[in-house]
Design goal:
Two copies of one chain form a homodimer. Chain A is α/β, with parallel strands linked by helices. Helix content of chain A is 37%, strand content 17%. Chain A starts with 8 loop residues before the first strand and ends with a strand. β3 of chain A pairs antiparallel with β3 of chain B.
């Protein structure tokens, strides 16, 4: 099933908008920001007319912006008509699946130069409608009428995980602390604050108002304070959840043999995998995501590498528990030991397997259709030594992205390599 | 831009649900009907586990059925998990673009066996909301606030066309008459009636009620009667418009070298083209669809054939004017002469270039995400001599499909060949 690509595929440029809440900006405006940055990132430049196809990940512009058929509209907006343009939708994996289709288009020889993008404009809707719209990614015939929205799904997985492995719930909080730590070093992140910054700011505010200043021994104590970090769906609290975000991202792919025409420091996509699954209730276990393990197995086989070879990864931490399950599904840590790895700092920037150096969905933000493409932006930066204060040392050679739709009805995994 | 496919692609099976209004059936139920028929159509059978990817065209299940992330859900529903599954959205061209991605997946060598499907369940919404939902396929930032919905867009194109070429409006009615004539011979069509059947039924009803029986000299007189065929947006009347429909369709693609393992009568996809465009108001002319001409040029070049070589075509007649523009954009008739060809019967089953032998969107129905895939079903039937009472004689060798999104922000064209 996981076959070799017919020819190699290189990334020669990337760009993303800032992630956050941007009233007054539409998704096409945000895409312009991403695309402009991409254009500047292509070292030797390129002519936009060289682009032969545009694959655009988007979850539900229909609901969020009252606009469907968004791919040709966005293409026209940035001056790319008449390029073949299409929207790919697989819920929160839309960006990653769009990337995969772009990879296939180049690998097939059908196109030499392809643009993959992702975008979502979520903050125009009231919060309750955003939750309901996201719930459309679950099975609305069975799962949603039973009362589930996404915090509930992931809370079910988290409580099952804690129970099955006797895990310490503090591991969840450690994921949040680490990803905020990383995101604070990413100027594009929605949250530029460490958890300790949030604590300090709350203290300062209380003092300013003449209220009693809260005493938190450390970040963990802060995150366990039900007032500072309210419960959303047990055991998940506010800081376990990724935010509602606006944002866009874009990457330019070319066939490997043409890469040096565009850049002296391309990165190469050497593995790609994708798998689907049914509703959460149909699975044998709640504590892993089978589509993730399958997609990863395909990508590893295609790339001819193993989990041990991967230097760092961007994984789909829509909730903190999702990162813990991901590092197991991807084979980074044994089944049932992901929580320990998080507690022990193994996924920190200076750990043995850095995860979500960008801040992840948790801190960078999660404009759902853009997330799978924004992960590639971090691949580009880390592999090329361009990640600034959050740069991994030594400069990594192999990175992996993991993008999940729904509770794992879709998962897509890609592997990236630096050769220079 | 239009490159050769890396390896050949064959269709070895097709299926579709009946098109129509089916209260109580969801899109996944309709897809089951299409998929079951497909399974039976594969002459030598196949194991569903051979399917390596599922490309699903769907316009807006988000709005129509309150369900996004539909591809893995449908895959699970028919027992195909964990197959890589994705929804492709390009408005009413979603099905055709899904087909194109499936073609690429096989041509690239990434997959040997791929399922392409399309589905839409439109009739659960009140009619006014259906019109508003379809309008999301236009630019809702500029076009829709100006008062346009799709009948208005195509009415603008029709009035510009009639004016620019001094065309006889009767040509529009002739498209409707022909396509209803064809659809009456298609058991899957939403409308199984010729226009003359509709006339006769109206007369019978009047007589039954003791009302004066209308006297119409012929079908044209009937269609010009403002009471029998009310004006929707001048010059388009009710019978110029395709209906609101529910339906699903599916096709199984394999690499050409594996085709005989599945069937002794595969058909081959030898050309594929796709192009995009901006909003209607940005175009130089309202009387042609540039994306259609571009997509066709790509497909002809890839296939190494010309418009003259094509024996028959299924074109996107969402409105009667759309078929007239299509037969020009595709090069079947010179610019400005499509209306004459329709008047003169050149697109009839016994004409020089039969168009929409299935009944087209006009009579067969237009469940928007399914239409581009259902066109392939007609290719299969006509090329294999399986089209029953509407079978073309002599049995054709080369067919073409033309699937449009919006007013032509997307167009996708494929060319099919019988070799046996």
């Amino acid at each position: 099933m996981a076959k070799k690509l017919s020819r190699g595929v290189a990334v020669v440029g990337v760009g993303m908008s800032k992630f956050g809440a941007f009233p007054g900006k539409s998704s096409r405006d945000l895409f312009v920001e991403a695309y402009q940055e991409l254009r500047q990132s292509v070292q030797k430049g390129f002519n936009p007319q060289e682009i032969e196809a545009f694959y655009m990940g988007n979850f539900s512009s229909d609901q969020f912006e009252n606009q469907a058929h968004l791919a040709p509209i966005v293409a026209s907006w940035v001056g790319l008509s008449p390029v073949a343009s299409m929207r790919i939708e697989d819920a929160c994996a839309s960006g990653g699946v769009a990337l995969r289709q772009a990879v296939l288009a180049v690998a097939s020889g059908q196109c030499d130069v392809v643009l993959a993008g992702g975008l979502e404009k979520m903050t125009d809707l009231p919060a309750a409608r955003v939750t309901d719209t996201l719930a459309l990614a679950a099975d609305t015939m069975f799962e949603v009428p039973a009362g589930f929205t996404f915090p509930g799904f992931y809370a079910s997985m988290a409580s099952a995980y804690l129970d099955e492995y006797g895990a310490d719930g503090e591991a969840l909080l450690r994921v949040a602390i680490k990803n905020h730590e990383n995101g604070a070093l990413n100027e594009k992140a929605q949250f530029g604050q460490r958890i300790s910054d949030v604590m300090a700011s709350k203290k300062a505010k209380a003092a300013q108002k003449g209220q009693p200043v809260p005493e938190w021994a450390d970040e963990i104590a802060f995150l366990k304070d039900g007032k500072a970090n309210p419960m959303i769906a047990w055991p998940l609290r506010l800081f376990d959840c990724s935010p509602v975000s606006d944002g866009a991202a874009a990457v330019l792919l070319v066939s490997a043999d043409l890469a040096e025409r565009y850049s002296d420091h391309p990165i190469f996509i050497i593995g790609s995998g994708q798998a689907s699954d049914g509703a959460l209730a149909e699975r044998e276990s709640l504590t892993s995501v089978p589509s993730a393990a399958r997609a990863a197995a395909q990508a590893y086989e295609m790339a001819g590498v193993t989990a041990q070879d991967i230097d760092f990864a961007e994984v789909h931490d829509c909730f903190t528990i999702a990162e813990i399950m991901a590092v197991e599904d991807l084979g980074f840590f044994p089944r049932g030991e992901g929580w320990k790895a998080e507690l022990e700092g193994k996924t920190a920037r200076n750990g043995e397997k850095p995860v979500n150096t960008s801040g992840g969905l948790k801190s960078k933000g999660h404009p759902v259709g853009a997330s799978g493409i924004a992960q590639v932006v971090e691949m580009w930066k880390q592999l090329n030594g361009l990640a600034g204060a959050r740069q991994l040392q030594p400069q990594p050679k192999l990175g992996l992205t993991h993008n999940v739709g729904g509770t794992g009805q879709t998962c897509v995994v890609h592997i990236f390599e630096r050769r220079s």
